[in-house]
Structure formats: structure tokens, C-alpha cells
């Protein structure tokens, strides 16, 4: 919650919409990358320390790491120039994989992140499909197509006279798992059938 609405159930004011589950899915992303790389004893988490959710994200992913019996190495980047340093840190920590946290900084630097992951041969799980389309390994996040559909339904209801204040903020309920097999092959990885069977999209 960022204070834009009073509550999801009763937004009040003149605003409603669709809430993407973003950072809340980071523990699931760690579980997925751990399933993909069961031999990884250290998994890194990249977060922007300036994001208001950074501390909560670290706590949540730390809990998921403990449940998987892996060590979590937290690396941070608050600006474009710090992303290279973060990758050097996770390589030094011998991280077997990386979970990229959300936020506009990392989304805007997709090409840089994907390039660094390839250069350092680090398997990375992202939060949006666009990273994988640009050559990233795997992503898991809310389906934009489904969210736009829900938003369209709300727009139609508002145009017919309903008040935004009376329409509960909806949360995403459909999530997409996208895998790039070309990237997996370049990393020398075999994606387990258990993950392939759950994938919504496989890029070959």
C-alpha cells in the first residue's frame, strides 16, 4: 500500500484499480530458482535500498532462503552505476543464482542486467516477462494481459456510472512463468521438467 487508497476493499475518493503483486512474489521467485538450481548453496537478492519496501523484501526472502536451507547474499544498487558493482559482489559471494527485486530502476536497466548476467554466467530470475524476452533466463510475475483485462472491465463499469470509490481494488490472480531455453543452454543448464510443465511461455 502506498497510501493512494484508504483500503483495497473500500478505496474511497476517486481512485480504484488493479494491484500487481510484485515484491510479494520474491519468496516464490527464490523457491523457483532454487528448484532450477538445487546445487546452489548461495542465492543473491538484488534490491534498490531506496525503495520503501526494501527492508520487508529482504526479510521475506531471507525467510524463504532459510526454508530452502540456502544462504542469502543481499546486494544493493540505488543507481545505474551501482548495478555493475552489485554483480561483482554477488560473484565474490559465489552466488549460484540471483533474484532481481522490482522497481523502475531495474526495469529501466533490463538490457544492462541481462548483459551482466550473461557476462558473469549467473542464472537470474526476474519479475517481468520483458527481461526474458531480452535474453534473461526466467521470470515469474503478475500477468499484464490479465491485469489489463480487469482494468478494462472496471473502465467500462465507471463509464456506465459506477463510482471508483465503490469498486474494490483488485489484486492480480494470474501469474506468468516464462523461461528462455536459449539462455538456459548458453548457461549450460537443463531446465527440470517440473518447471517446464508449469511454464506459461517457453522462448526457444
Short précis:
This protein has 204 residues and is of the alpha/beta class. It has one domain (18-143, 173-203): 3-Layer(aba) Sandwich (Rossmann fold), CATH 3.40.50.2300. The protein has helices at residues 26-36, 54-67, 80-92, 104-108, 110-119, 129-133, 144-159, 181-186, 193-196, and strands at residues 18-19, 42-47, 71-76, 97-100, 124-126, 138-142, 170-171, 175-180, 201-203.
Description:
The mean pLDDT is 87. The chain contains nine helices and nine strands. The chain has a single domain (18-143, 173-203), classed as Response regulator (Rossmann fold, 3-Layer(aba) Sandwich). By secondary structure, it is α/β, with parallel strands linked by helices. The relative contact order is 0.18.
CATH architecture: 3-Layer(aba) Sandwich
CATH class call: Alpha Beta
Mean pLDDT equals 87
N to C succession of SSEs: EHEHEHEHHEHEHEEHHE
CATH superfamily: Response regulator
Spatially, the strands of the biggest sheet line up as 3-2-4-5-6-8-9
What general outline do the C-alpha atoms trace?
globular
Amino acid at each position: 500500500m502506498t497510501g493512494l487508497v484508504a483500503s483495497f476493499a473500500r478505496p474511497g475518493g476517486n481512485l480504484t484499480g488493479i494491484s500487481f503483486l510484485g515484491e510479494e512474489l520474491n519468496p516464490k521467485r527464490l523457491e523457483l530458482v532454487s528448484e532450477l538450481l538445487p546445487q546452489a548453496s548461495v542465492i543473491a537478492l538484488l534490491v534498490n535500498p531506496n525503495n520503501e519496501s526494501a527492508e520487508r523484501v529482504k526479510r521475506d526472502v531471507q525467510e524463504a532462503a532459510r526454508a530452502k536451507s540456502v544462504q542469502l547474499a543481499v546486494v544493493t544498487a540505488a543507481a545505474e552505476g551501482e548495478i555493475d558493482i552489485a554483480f561483482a559482489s554477488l560473484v565474490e559471494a559465489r552466488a549460484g543464482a540471483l533474484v532481481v527485486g522490482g522497481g523502475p530502476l531495474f526495469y529501466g536497466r533490463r538490457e544492462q542486467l541481462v548483459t551482466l548476467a550473461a557476462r558473469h554466467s549467473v542464472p537470474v530470475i526476474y519479475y517481468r516477462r520483458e527481461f526474458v524476452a531480452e535474453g534473461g533466463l526466467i521470470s515469474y510475475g503478475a500477468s499484464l494481459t490479465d491485469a489489463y483485462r480487469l482494468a478494462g472491465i472496471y473502465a467500462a463499469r465507471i463509464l456506465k456510472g459506477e463510482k471508483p470509490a465503490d469498486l474494490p481494488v483488485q489484486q492480480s490472480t494470474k501469474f506468468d512463468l516464462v523461461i528462455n531455453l536459449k539462455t538456459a543452454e548458453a548457461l549450460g543448464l537443463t531446465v527440470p521438467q517440473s518447471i517446464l510443465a508449469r511454464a506459461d511461455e517457453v522462448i526457444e
